[in-house]
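Work Package 3 (structural annotation) set out to generate three-dimensional models for the target panel prioritized at the project kickoff. During this period the team completed the workflow that converts sequence records into discrete structure tokens, so that structures can be stored uniformly alongside our sequence database. As a representative example, we reproduce one entry of 137 residues exactly as it appears in the project archive.
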Amino acid sequence: IADPRLPQRLILSAWGWHHPERRTRGGIFVSDDRGAAWRRVLSRDSFVFSVSRDPLHAERLYAAGFSGTAWRSDDAGETFLPIRGFRFKNAHRVFVDPTRDGYIYIATFGAGLWHGRAETDPEARTLTEEMPRRRSV
């Protein structure tokens, strides 16, 4: 998405890809020069499906993906924290509740809508982080 206040600033959600010969990194990337250079601002989630902007708060962004966590940024995408209480693995997109400030809807792939407060939890771990690591044989 583009920042309406800074047209040269772009925020990109990315899906990581694993291949025997090459591995790409997913997460959220930001460009401050119309896409000439990118920097990764969210690395804890490698499968981010979407980033959306809060129309009521110019600096607030939301992100959703497939790692069991939805994310919120209050600094125009520089940092993202997990949203408290959301624990569904297949999130599609975050929408701001138009009738209640501070509440959001999260659309999922196949499980309907989650509705709740848009509070963050800095201590929360993603489902991917909680899964035991597979040891190589």
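Residues 73 and 80 are 5 Å apart (CA to CA).
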